[in-house]
Amino acid sequence: MPAGPRPPYRIAVSAADTPEEVVAKASRVRPTRRQVAWQRLERTAFLHFGVNTFTGLEWGTGDEDPDVFQPIGLDTDQWARALRDGGFELAILTVKHHDGFVLYPSRYTKHTVASSSWRDGRGDVLRDFTTSLRKHGLKVGVYVSPADENQYLHGVYANGSARAPRTVPTPVPGDDRPAADTFTLHATDYGAFMLNQLYEVLTEYGPVDEVWFDGAQGRIPPEKVERYDWDSWYALIRALAPDAVIAVRGPDVRWVGNEGGLAREDEWSVVPVKDSGNGSVDYALPFDAPDQGSREALADARAVAQYVQWWPAECDVSIRPGWFFHEDERPKSVEQLTDIWFRSVGRNAVLLLNVPPDKRGLLPDADVARLREFRQRIDRELPADLTAAPGARVLRRGGVVTVDLGRERQVDRVRLAEDVARAGQQIESFVVETRSDNGTWTETAAAGTVGASRVLLLATPVRARHWRVRATGARGKARFGEVGLYRSAVG
C-alpha cells in the first residue's frame, strides 16, 4: 500500500482550545525528515570569520576597509580535518556577519573579499570552505546575517521602502550567469538584497544543509527599523535548498535562549509558536522562559499561540569567550565542554560549538587539540553500550524497555531516545529501575522529558543484571527508540 500523508509538524491552536485539547494536539505533532536528520547530528560547528577577526571587534561597523581582511595562511582543509576529528558532521560559516562584509565575491555589494588585495582580489572563502567540507565528509551550513551595517551606510538597510514584488535573481551589469528560473517574491529594498545574496549562495556553491539566521537588528537610530522579509527568504531557501533546515529564526530549529550552550532540564521539541510578522516563526512564550513546552507552558501560551510546532532547540556557545578570534583568549577546558555536552545533547538539543579561525586563516593549535580531546572524552564517557554486549537481551513493550545484561555489570550512564520520527515526543516523566535477586524492582534514577536524546549521569555506578526503563507520564503512546547502558571509562 502507498504511504499515507506525513503527520503534521505544526497544528493550529487558539485561545478557545482547552488545556487538554492543546496537549492532545501537541501529542500529534511529528518532525519533518529534515528535522529528524538535523537532530541526529547532535554536534554542529560554527566558524565566525571576517573583518572582525582583524579589527578585534565582535560587532563590526560596516565602514571597514576591506583590505584589512588578509588571511594569508588560509587553509580550510585544516578546518575540515579538525572538525571531523572533533566529531562534527556539519559546520556553519559566517558568510556575512552584521558588518555586511561578505566572504565571497557577491555581485550586489563591494564590501566583499573581492575588494581586498588578499589573493589579488580573487579570493573566495566560501568556495574554499564548501570544497573542503565536502572533501572531508562534512555537511555545509551558511550564516547570512539579517543585519547589515554596510547596507545601512549605503541607504538600503532600513530605508523605509515598502514591500513590493521583486524578481530574483536581479540582473546586474555584466551578469555572466546562465539563464535560470526566476522568482517573484515580496520584499523591501534590503529584503531583495538579501534574496539576491541567498540566491548566489544557494545556487553557486553546491548543496547546503543548514541556513542560519539570527534576529539581529542593525545598530541604527531607534526610529529606523528593517522589518525582515522572512516569508520570502524562507520560500527561496525551500525552493533552492529543500533539504536544508532553517535556523534559528526559521521554521525548523529554534534558539535555546542563551549563549552558554545549555538546554533546559526538560526541553521539549514541540512548543507553542506565533507569527510575529512577515511569516516569522516566533516564540509564543519569552525566548528565555524556563519552560517552553510542558502542559503548563502550553496552557499559558494559549492566548497568543497560533500553532504547536516541532521546533527543536539548538544550543550555541563559543569555545572561547568571544565569537571571533582574539589573541588574548583561550579555549574552554575539556571539563567545561563535556559539561556543556551533557546539558545540551544530553537534554534533547543539538550543540552548536563556535570555533573561530585566527588571523592566519587557521584554527588555533590549542583549539584543534581541545576539539580532539573533547571527542575523546565523550567517547570515554559513553564507551560501549552494554545492551549490545554478547549475552544481553532487550525486551521492548511500548513505554517499557527491560534489559537483561546476561550478568551483573556496573552502569553509571543511561542514554535514551524516543522514536520521535514515528511517535513524536510524548514522555513527560520516566524512571530507571534495577531488579534484585528476589525480583523486586528498585528505582535507580528518575527524570522528566526524553525526546531525541536524553543522557543521565548516575551519581555512583550501580551494579545489576536486570534493568528497566519505564515511562511514568506521557501525552500519548510512548515509544522508545534507544535505551543504552554504559560504564564510563573516565576517572
Automatic annotation (TrEMBL):
Record SMART domains: Alpha_L_fucos (SM00812)
Enzyme Commission no: 3.2.1.51
GO biological process, one term: fucose metabolic process
Pfam families attached to this UniProt entry: Alpha_L_fucos, F5_F8_type_C_2
Keyword annotations of the record: Glycosidase, Hydrolase, Signal
Ranges where the F5/8 type C domain occurs: 401-488
MF annotations from Gene Ontology: alpha-L-fucosidase activity
An annotated GO cellular component: lysosome
Family: Belongs to the glycosyl hydrolase 29 family.
Name of the molecule in the record: alpha-L-fucosidase
Protein's organism: Streptomyces aurantiacus JA 4570
